[in-house]
Specification:
Layout (H helix, E strand, L loop, with lengths): L5 H4 L8 E12 L3 E5 L7 E4 L7 H4 L7 E10 L7 E12 L15 H6 L8 H23 L3 E2 L5 E2 L11 E2 L26 E3 L4 H11 L1 E9 L12 E10 L3 H22 L1 H16 L11 H10 L3 E4 H9 L2 H4 L16 H12 L3 E7 L15 E9 L3 E9 L3 H10 L8 H5 L8 E7 H9 L20
Parallel strand pairs: 3-5, 6-10, 12-13
Antiparallel strand pairs: 1-2, 1-4, 2-3, 4-5, 7-9, 8-9, 10-11, 11-16, 13-14, 14-15, 15-16
């Protein structure tokens, strides 16, 4: 008999119809009550066996982690907290699980421990919920842009350009690691490499995305990106996913409006479509908050943070005004900021961004017109000669979640900036050439997908919102 997903059965009217469920045993109580989960929902369904008539050897194999197939009648459940259960007629063990060795017993496990068994942590309530939310957000991203007439572009993962000018990139090569070929100056000769030049894993699809925005109008990318930064923090990964829309004929104001519309759409989609998983993650986050000292607890719970973003217009203000607010703030005057704000031109830290959002404005914030010296080469230079048309979206509990800008469409200005920053002009010839043939005002931004999932799920470590995290010293699984 074809199986029915548990999510469907839990909303089905029980009329003693015969059903089949297949999934993994969470608990088996009193030789009678099996809690089964199949991943379709955070909830389990209870299957009730008649231990008096069931083969004892089969009963012994019903252990936590085992995979089972049960067929029986769907009946009203007398138990509290569930409307239906299955009265089992047939039970088959599809996969055994040794209870002495299976590491996920019915108790609370630390997230650190679960990272060590990333191949099994998806069977916990927490990671099942996170991954279902992650899927919903990926779908919502495509739906948002598709419904607005954007085109999805696959930009290259192997690239010869460094979009951020950061240099922290993973090299891609087929050269002999022990004896690479060298030129007459003793340098590695990349002409003999697979691509005939030095190549890396991409840090961003933005530059390539711009070329298609200047042909198709509005495009977006959604793919993996890589940073070889030695950052062992709760906010950084070496491999992560980015959403990067690029739009012709958008100025910085249009860009900010799209970023707000996009984020509010995603948060509303999560609230509307992931209610059960968010309720579980909300309670989990509340328990975690209770274990913190009072002064470190968040003022807003998870569901309130999501509603805070969905229901409030984002405050927009120039970087210069933000600096004045921060300089005159109590935490800065009383030296409570770890990084004191003393002068115009400093790069803001997460503590500053969160102060603006959570304490000062009490709404999401978009900062724009940043000093050009702390921003990338491709950002449009403002007429004051000091700032660029950059913008960052700041969220409660997380700080910056989106970074973007109006792109520099003027050939001379872009060339001078590349030269000023000593970037390899020969590698960016094609990017510069875009400004020679029908250049147009255009804008775009980047959203780190895992940062979004951190915010929506209330998880506190970015390594817990991706299936197999990659970070310094770790490429397990």
């Amino acid at each position: 008999m074809k199986r029915t997903k548990i999510k469907v059965l839990l909303s089905t009217s029980p009329q003693h119809q015969e059903v089949t469920v297949q999934g993994w045993v969470r608990t088996f109580r009193n030789n009678q009550f099996i809690a089964i989960n199949d991943g379709s929902t955070i909830n389990t369904i209870q299957a009730v066996v008649d231990f008096a008539t069931m083969d004892e050897s089969v009963l012994k194999r019903i252990t936590t982690g085992a995979c089972v197939s049960v067929t029986g009648e769907l009946i009203p459940s007398p138990a509290k907290g569930q409307t239906v259960e299955i009265k089992v007629n047939q039970l088959e063990i599809l996969g055994d699980s040794d209870p002495e060795k299976f590491p996920l017993q019915p108790k609370k496990h630390s997230l650190e421990f679960l990272r060590e068994i990333a191949h099994l942590r998806s069977r916990t309530n927490t990671f099942g919920a996170v991954m279902r939310v992650r899927h919903a957000m990926a779908y919502a991203i495509h739906k948002f842009y598709n419904d607005r007439g954007f085109f999805y572009i696959h930009t290259p993962i192997i690239t010869g350009s460094d979009a951020e000018g950061a240099g922290a990139m993973f090299r891609v090569t087929t050269l002999d690691a022990d004896k690479p070929p060298r030129d007459e100056n003793g340098h590695i000769d990349y002409k003999e490499d697979f691509f005939g030049r030095e190549t890396n894993l991409t840090v961003s699809g933005q530059l390539e995305g711009e070329t298609y925005a200047l042909a198709l109008g509005e495009i977006y990318t959604f793919g993996p990106t890589f940073r070889a930064e030695n950052s062992n923090t709760t906010r950084h990964l070496a491999e992560f996913w980015m959403i990067e829309p690029e739009m012709a004929f958008y100025d910085i104001q249009d860009n900010m409006q799209l970023a707000q519309d996009f984020l509010q759409y995603l948060v509303r989609y999560a609230l509307d479509n992931c209610a059960e998983d968010l309720e579980f993650l909300h309670k989990r986050a509340q328990e975690e908050e209770q274990s913190k000292p009072q002064d470190q607890r968040s003022e807003l719970c998870l569901l309130d943070r999501l509603k805070f973003v969905a229901e409030n217009d984002f405050q927009r203000l120039p970087y210069t005004e933000a600096i004045e607010i921060l300089k005159n703030s109590n935490p800065n005057k009383k030296k409570k900021f770890q990084y004191l704000v003393e002068e115009w031109g400093v790069d803001l830290q997460s503590e500053h961004e969160r102060f603006l959002v959570e304490k000062h404005f009490k709404k999401p914030v978009i900062l724009y017109n940043y000093p050009k010296d702390i921003k990338a080469f491709y950002m449009r230079q403002n007429e004051d000669g000091k700032t660029v048309a950059a913008m960052d979206v700041l969220f409660p509990g997380i700080g910056e979640i989106i970074g973007g800008s109006q792109r520099e469409e003027r050939y001379d200005r872009l060339l001078s900036r590349i030269q000023e920053m000593n970037l390899p002009e020969k590698d960016l010839w094609w990017y510069l050439e875009l400004r020679k043939f029908g250049s147009a005002p255009h804008s775009g931004f980047g959203l780190g997908f895992e940062r979004l999932i951190l915010f929506v799920t209330g998880m506190t470590n970015i390594r817990d919102v991706i299936a197999y995290p990659r970070f310094p010293g770790n490429a397990e699984f």
